[in-house]
Amino acid sequence: MSFIVDVIADGFRSLFSLGADVRDVVLLTLLVSVTATVIASVVGIPLGVALSTARFRGRQLVMTLVNVGMGIPPVLAGLLVLLLLWGEGPFGSLDLLFTPAAMVIVQVVLALPIAIGVTVAAVSNVPRDALEQLRALDLPRLERGRLLAVEARAGVFGAVAAAFGRVISEVGAVLIVGGNIAGETRVLTTAIVQESRQARFGAAVALGLVLLALSLVVNGGLTWLQAWGESDG
Question: Does the pLDDT at position 135 exceed 70?
């Protein structure tokens, strides 16, 4: 027990000695995770709205694929993106492997099904009378979808928060396609792995505290927006 207490205390002490290299790791973590979340949300939320209202053959299959994607193991997603970006793969000529761009791609793969699935659930919970009013207005499909997203805004903000939570804590997929290269592709989660492997537990705890603080700030803001959406509705 004293070992754990000492490590935690060392972690808090290490917070005050984090250098410029850690600042770069934090900035890259935010850049990759926020970019992936924005892309997944911009693509996934409209798709979720469309899926929640559309009725077509194969819809159940599409929803099954979305649900499977929400739980895809990160290492599997990393492996698939690795094969696609490998030199002999279909996109190998783009030379994206072991770059931040590859990390964004794999995080979008992980976050997109969550953005779609949570949005579908949110729009499906819109009151029936509100749906009937929208149908009575005979609006263009895009405008109707926008109004549905506004009506379900609390759940939509929840979709963004869930997508961000998926990517900010990810380690396996970004490690596979990013390589954890110091100064280039190292993010907070892979840096924690690196420090732990070298038994520098205090530094690992310090990085974990920074990661926790980032998650609290971003998800706290998204949770506030979600609560605002519920109260304003």
Answer: no
